[in-house]
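Retro notes
What went well: the complex prediction finally ran end to end.
Inputs used:
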Amino acid sequence: MTEARFDRSAVEAFLIHEAALLDDREFEQWRDLFDEDGYYWVPLRPDQKSPEGESSLFYDDRKVMQTRIERLRHPRIHSQTPPHRTCHLIGNVAITETDAAKSECTIRSSLMMADYRLRVQRNFAARVTHRLRAVGDSFKIAWKRVDLINCDDAFELIAVPF
Amino acid sequence: MNAINPAELRALIRPDRVHRSLYTDPAIFTLEMKNLFGRAWVYVGHDSLVPKPGDYLASRIGSEPVLLSRHTDGKVYVIYNRCSHRGAAVCNEERGNVKLFRCPYHGWTFATNGDLDAVSMRRGYGPDFNLNDPALNMGQVPRMEVYRGFVFASLSAEGPSLAEFLGHARESLDEIVDRAPDGELDLSGGVHKYVFRGNWKLQLENVVDMYHVPFSHESTISRSGRQFGRRPGEESASAISDKGAAADRWEQRVAWGAAQYGHSYAGHQPVAEGLPDDPVFKEYVAALEARHGKARTEEILVPRRHNTAFFPNMTLQALNYHVRVIIPLAVDRTEIHVYPVQFKGAPAAMNAGFVRHMNVTHSAASFIQTDDLECFRRCQEGIATQGSDWVWFARGTDTDREDEHGDFINKGTVETQQRAQHAAWLHFMSQPA
């Protein structure tokens, strides 16, 4: 594969597609963007080096993602009755590293996500890092790390991934 | 604001219900900070969070901001997070390490036990200004005691000793600490924080509520009636239901409430399966046996207590081991910190598994805790209405009895535990100024 596969507009389109899946609550399709060994990580501290051995807001491999999504689809999930509505806004997309041999690249972007439920709207902001692998004519996510600027805050209940 | 007299307080607690003002009245909240959090032994933090001299952890006793600090003498101290000069909060960070505490405002410095170190521009004070006046220290709270790593403190110089206060609830701490091969817990695996729009007692009542589980947490129970696996390699875990054999096992849990001081616990359900037999667990058992021998190790590993609530502000769980701290911010706002517990001397993989499973059970984005938070918010919303003056705790009033120590005991999905909490609440709140 050529480095041209990892051009900014292609990865940005991918991130926009990922955001749309989350906002449309297409969680199964969102899970399928992750590679088999993929994981989704939202640390609780700004300098957290690894998701192992320390608490995280989300640390989902595909198996945990599956359990999470099944619960989100449960007819009596009280904390999502009604569900959160979300709006993920992606910006500042930059490819920071490309590994042609592995067909992988690292993307950094900024995320603002608003969510709304029962008269309360929240606004989250984060620096996001994706590790993408070129697979077929698209990408798979090897891992996604979301560094919320308020990562060590006390949160009201959260259900939808950032 | 009028003081609330003991007769008025007594009228709020009935044998099977409590008055809604406990959860909604700001005057009661203010009195709780003074009479309850201002008098009881309150959990401040764990000494594994401040291992080295100069380490500190920000905490609270009721509404008082304090620091748990490890001094150069190797001991921990609990001091007010307040510069003695003009009252500035000295530490902004939740955790850190310092040689000296230094106030940003005028540069006064303090030793890590709170003693005044130096006043800047000393000459500006006259010769009669006494630098040894203890009022110039970041003061230590009146009483502090550490039990097996758990640091408790009291804002009152008088009252029961910590041992007397904890009573037989202390055994819950022993049960868990004894499970660490090195005899020490480690709470440094991070902390989950969440906040809810509700009174702090909603959380305290919930951790020893065995009635709510099949209903609140319905979304975690598969069609086969089993909850998702909680331990590494587990496909699924306990059967949870309000009917049938699963419910029967649930009803065998011990329900215990202290006669004094409000502590309570829910026991473990009878264990159908044996202990895990994977290599990591076997390595763990070997470490315990090296320290305690086979017989004592077997005793240590028997699951006895599930959730213990140390009145007023700390809970301990022995399924997904964690310490939970309840921080009352306002009558209708509470912050909760949940620390996964790791066992010193246990295999790294076991401890990492403990931490990892807490992410899915108790983070603010978790599968379990979020449904509780939703119910707390709904309770606060509903309790504020004039629809009814009372909140019910009537389960088991006809079957409560006393154990051999005079504490209250019962079984299953009763509310013995919450009644013990309310009795202690009344005891502290009714005390004269």
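What we learned: DSSP finds three helices and six strands in chain A.
What to try next: split runs per interface for comparison.
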